[in-house]
Every structure is written in structure tokens, then in C-alpha cells.
Amino acid sequence: MIGRVLALARDDTHRFSKQPAPRLTLLEGLGVEGDAHFGRTVQHLSRVRRDPTQPNLRQVHLIHAELLDELADRGFEVQPGEMGENVTTFGIDLLGLPRGARLKLGAEAVLEVTGLRNPCVQIDRFQEGLMQAVLDRDAAGALVRKAGVMAIVLAGGEVAVGDAVTVELPAEPHRALEPV
């Protein structure tokens, strides 16, 4: 599977949306340099309140551009970075990846997918009804979360808009993604 980096974003404060950037620096074990979620331990404010010593499994947030197209078809106007993601990809089924899948971005950076983003009420504060639009049900009635995946940085490097994204699957048996 090969895709592309469509857009990049970061924000040094804890706001819902992130600011577009032409390139990002990813640092091993820490995340996106200059982003509020940068660090070895959890940085998500509600999780910090519960236990600030938890490992940061949410160093990088990725969303597939195909979701933005789907949302546009449903009447929502969402630009890359506006749902808090650092990396917007194109051509990769992020939600179909197993836990532990590795994503190589550009020449050096490698991410490991840790799980799904669990959408929260902030999505509806951004645009009313958006939370329901990023949730679905599969044929068995199980909840499907479509608001992207979370990852940790295994190898740092510079990532630029337009860079290739390649996928390396972990050894089987594959484990389905769960919210982190």
C-alpha cells in the first residue's frame, strides 16, 4: 500500500484544530515537534488529569482525506488539520490497518499505529452533527469510529506535503484497532 501526505498540521496549544504546515519534524518517542501533544507521556488533557504517567500512544494523529470527501458529501466543510490531525493522508485505508502497522513517511520517519481516535464532544462544538457523521455501525451493529488513527514515532525525520506513505503490516495474527 502506497499513499501520499496530502496535508500537515500542528499547534503548540491545546485547541481542537491545528494550523497547516508545509513540513513537520517528527522526533522518535516524542511526536511532532512544536505540537501540544509532544512528549513521552500522555499529553491529552483529560488523560493527564486521570494519570499523567501513562505512555503517550497519541503522539501523531492521522486522518485519511477520503473521510473529508465523505463529510463534504454529507454537507460538512472540513479542511485538513481542522479535526486536530497532524497528518492527512490520501490513498491509504488507515481504519483498515491492524494495530502495530508501520507507516513510513518521506525518507526517514516511521510511525507505529497504536489505535483509533475516539471522537469526543469537541467535534460537535466544531460543527454541529459532525460527531454523528464520524461514527457508523458495521453489518454486525458494532460501532465504527472514523475520526482517524493515532500513532507513535519509531524513527524521526522531516515530513513534507506530497511525501510518499508506505505501509508495513505486522506479523499475523493481526489485531484490530481499538480506541486509545
UniProtKB/TrEMBL annotation:
Stored InterPro entries: MoCF_Sase_C (IPR005302), MOSC_domain (IPR052716), Pyrv_Knase-like_insert_dom_sf (IPR011037)
Domain MOSC: 19-168
Top-level taxon in the UniProt lineage: Bacteria
Organism: Aureimonas endophytica
Gene Ontology molecular function, alphabetical: catalytic activity; molybdenum ion binding; pyridoxal phosphate binding
Protein name: MOSC domain-containing protein
Classification lineage: Bacteria, Pseudomonadati, Pseudomonadota, Alphaproteobacteria, Hyphomicrobiales
